[in-house]
Amino acid sequence: MNKNKYGKEVFRKMLHMLALAGVIAWSHYYDDWRYSAVVFLLAVLILFPLVYLLSKIPGASAFFNARKKGEFSYSMMALAIMYAIVCSVCWGFLGERLLTIACIVAWGPGDAAAALIGKAFGRHKIGKDKRKSLEGSLAMFFFSFLAVLITLKIYGKYSLLATIVVAALTAIASTLAELFDTRGYDTFYCPVAAMIVLFIGELILR
Question: Which residue range forms the structural domain that includes residue 108?
Fold first, then answer.
């Protein structure tokens, strides 16, 4: 394992976790889901050109490009679009702000664990291009499950059994989305996959 590359991956995932915390905090800023979704999306649209241009500046490119050119700016856009969709469906249509948060935490902690544990201990390669590992995917499932379980229990949304089942199914969906994503847009796909499960679960259990 290349320690320099692993250090960069740790830094990337720290940024992801900061983004996760920021989005969760943002979801509590407005009382109206429309303001929350639209203002967030507009802010990112305004910042996108600036961040993209910064990725072209020598010296700053290593920070803004990470694995590939423009990664930071495109991930930021994927995050904004994801939030707008998840917020509209969970908070807007279902009227449940907490499910918006559950979708997001189904991605963040699990994605970070999948990358860091997978790179450090991944021995059994899986996925379409064999770039993911069984160890990383198991870590993704565990931390995603735990994060969703805690979120749902904090808000006392369902019974304990229902919470465990919903959290497990949500974690499976998020893990599969991360496993089969080969373009680096798990920021979008994982929460949206989680949203589908949570949407169905809410319709059944409400």
Answer: 3-205
